[in-house]
């Protein structure tokens, strides 16, 4: 009898081990697809892993990441919740769930999740950085600076941390510190298009138009589909009095994204400056239709239109 039971337990153990290995294979394949940006295929693989092993917390977390990339936040949250139930001391999943709460504007919940991640993993620099970002959105700039300081002490070579702190320095009107942090971010990651764009914007505010336009040019070179620096270069040209050059930039941005309200609004201003009021009105109406409230205000002010 004992021999039969031993054989039975051995069979169950072998089958269970095979099932776990199969689940691992699907999870690994899903991770490969995720890295390639093939989120639908990744989700299919993670789902197969979960089907084989319903206790696979890592697969739930990974599928949640893929759903998040697709903008399916509720599905992502459900998967993160499942991962936490299965593995309560899984620091990464708290950070991932916190990012969704941040995106939804639920900053207190985001910070609570990031704090939980730190409780589990005290050296989690990313969690401190994320806390600082949420605090910045709450207007708690001084507290955010403390959190950024801890993040950078733990990981002093992370370009995103300098980039995020620079954004907060801008909120504090400390433009020189912002420029310094954007510059450090660029030194650590020379292909950081957003950092070039943001530094250019700060230079524009200082009326250092040549420096600003050089940064916008680099951002566009690094990411030709990045419309914000194209629009910003248009603003820079406009502020220099180069109205036709500004319109050319707005046209380029709108060629990439015809429903870019800021570019429509700014082009409208440039048309108004040239006396082309019909074109201005047309652009501001379209910007207003896209939800850009400043366009409605200008239609009322310049055309006496309640639009």
Beta-strand residue fraction: under 5%
Q: Unreliable stretches, pLDDT < 50, 5 or more residues? A: 5-17
Overall pLDDT confidence:
94
**Rg from C-alpha positions?**
25 Å
The 3D shape can be described as globular
**Helix content range:** over 70%
Give a quick summary of the entry.
The protein is an all-alpha fold. About 4% of the residues have low confidence.
What does this structure look like?
The chain is mostly helical. It is 80% helix and 0% strand. The protein has 17 helices and no strands. The chain has helices at residues 2-35, 39-52, 57-69, 73-86, 91-103, 107-120, 125-137, 141-154, 159-171, 175-188, 193-205, 209-222, 227-239, 243-256, 261-273, 277-289, 293-303. α3 runs antiparallel to α4 (73-86) and α5 (91-103) packs antiparallel against α6 (107-120). The model is unreliable at 5-17 (pLDDT under 50).
Throw out a few tags for this protein:
307 residues; mainly alpha; 17 helices; 80% helix
Give the helix/strand layout.
Elements: H1 2-35, H2 39-52, H3 57-69, H4 73-86, H5 91-103, H6 107-120, H7 125-137, H8 141-154, H9 159-171, H10 175-188, H11 193-205, H12 209-222, H13 227-239, H14 243-256, H15 261-273, H16 277-289, H17 293-303
């Amino acid at each position: 009898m004992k021999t039969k039971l031993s054989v039975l337990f051995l069979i169950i153990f072998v089958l269970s081990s095979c099932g776990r290995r199969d689940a691992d294979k699907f999870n690994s394949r899903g991770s490969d697809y995720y890295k390639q940006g093939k989120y639908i295929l990744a989700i299919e693989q993670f789902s197969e892993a979960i089907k084989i092993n319903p206790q696979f917390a890592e697969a739930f977390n990974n599928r949640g990441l893929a759903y998040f990339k697709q903008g399916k936040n509720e599905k992502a949250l459900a998967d993160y919740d499942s991962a936490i139930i299965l593995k309560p001391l899984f620091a990464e999943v708290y950070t991932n769930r916190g990012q969704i709460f941040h995106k939804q504007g639920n900053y207190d919940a985001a910070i609570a999740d990031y704090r939980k991640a730190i409780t589990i993993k005290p050296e989690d620099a990313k969690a401190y950085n994320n806390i600082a970002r949420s605090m910045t959105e709450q207007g708690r700039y001084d507290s955010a600076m403390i959190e950024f300081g801890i993040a950078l002490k733990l990981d002093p070579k992370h370009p995103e941390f300098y980039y995020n702190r620079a954004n907060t320095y801008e909120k504090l009107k400390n433009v020189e510190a912002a420029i310094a942090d954007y510059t450090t971010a660029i030194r650590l990651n020379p292909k950081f298009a957003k950092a070039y764009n943001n530094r250019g914007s700060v230079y524009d505010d200082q009326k250092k138009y040549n420096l600003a336009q050089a940064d916008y040019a680099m951002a566009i070179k690094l990411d030709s589909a990045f419309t914000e620096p194209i629009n910003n270069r248009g603003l820079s040209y406009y502020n220099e009095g180069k109205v036709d050059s500004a319109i050319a930039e707005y046209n380029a941005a709108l060629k990439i994204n015809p429903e870019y309200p800021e570019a429509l609004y700014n082009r409208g201003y440039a048309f108004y400056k040239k006396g082309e009021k019909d074109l201005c009105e047309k652009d501001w109406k379209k910007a207003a239709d896209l939800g850009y409230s400043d366009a409605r205000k200008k239609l009322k002010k310049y055309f006496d239109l309640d639009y």
